[in-house]
Amino acid sequence: NVIVMGATVGIELDRLIIKYSHLSPTKALLLQALGAERIEALCDAFCEHLKAEGYTVRPRFSAGYGDLPLSVNKEIFSALSPEEAVGVTLSEGMLMTPTKSVTAFVGLLGE
Prior knowledge:
Structural class: alpha+beta
Order of helices and strands: EHHEHHEEE
Oligomer: single chain
């Protein structure tokens, strides 16, 4: 079994990064790092929830890693409709906005 997931920390962080990129590049860099950590923590929390439900969870795998092309995001967006659900959009270049957003496949064993 596989779960297809999408997650975001939201657009407000992107706004702060843009603001501080003009005022303090160091703060902008720290906000970038914080956003990356937060989206990973959110995805990890989701996988921990699945484990608590009794599943054996395989590592997450996202489009753009290994041999899974970024174009797979088109199908993921078609299936999940994250634009409506959480406000995540996909550019023609397959980049997501807000930037601290993730789509992934999570393999499950057992129940």
